[in-house]
C-alpha cells in the first residue's frame, strides 16, 4: 500500500541489474483490452519512444468527461511513429475542467507505461532520490520490514509530472 512508484521501482531495479536496456511495460491489473491489434500497435510505438529515452504512456481517447481519471495533453509529434506525442499530466480535474479537457482533445491517463529500465532508474535517482537510495540498497530479505518506510506516491506524481522526456501514444483499445 505504498502506491505505484515504490512497487514499480522495486521491479525495475531488479530488471535493470540484469539488463539496463530492457524495455519495461507497466500495466494496471484492472484493465480490459478488447482491441488487441490496437494495443499491440500502440505498444510498438511506445516501445520506439522508450528506446529513445522517453517515459511513455498509453493515452485513451475519452468517451465522456470523467473526474476520476488523470488527463494528458498531447503536444507535437515526435516522429517516432504516427501517434507519439510529448505530454504533461493533469490529475483528476473537477467536472467543468474535465469537460474542457475532453473538448480540447486531452487523453485519459491509462496508467500504462513503457520505458527503458536504465532511463527509469536515472529518472528515479533525479526526481525521487530517497526512493532510489532505499530501493537500490534494500535486500530482498529486508523488503518486508522496510517497504512500509517508502513514500506513498504514484509514478504519475513522482516521475511522469517531473520528467523532461515524457511521451504518449493515443490508442482506442475498446
Tell me what you see in this structure.
- The chain is an alpha+beta fold and 174 residues long.
- Helices cover 40% and strands 18% of the residues.
- It has 7 helices and 7 strands, in the order αβαββββαβααααβ.
- Strands 1, 2, 3, 4, 5, 6 and 7 form a 7-stranded mixed sheet that branches.
- Helix 1 crosses helix 5.
- It starts with a helix and ends with a strand.
- The relative contact order is 0.28.
The gist of it:
By secondary structure, the chain is of the alpha+beta class. It has helices spanning 4-18, 36-51, 95-103, 117-127, 129-137, 143-146, 155-160; strands at residues 23-26, 55-60, 71-72, 85-86, 89-90, 107-116, 166-171.
What composes the largest sheet?
Answer: 7 strands, mixed
For the termini, the CA-CA separation is 29 Å
Oligomer: single chain
What share of residues is helical?
A: 40-55%
Radius of gyration, CA atoms, in whole angstroms: 16 Å
As residue ranges, the low-confidence spans are 83-90
Helix-strand sequence: HEHEEEEHEHHHHE
Structural class: alpha+beta
So what's the overall shape? Answer: globular
Number of strands: 7
Number of DSSP helical runs: 7
Q: What share of the residues does DSSP label as strand, in percent?
A: 15-25%
- Overall pLDDT metric: 86
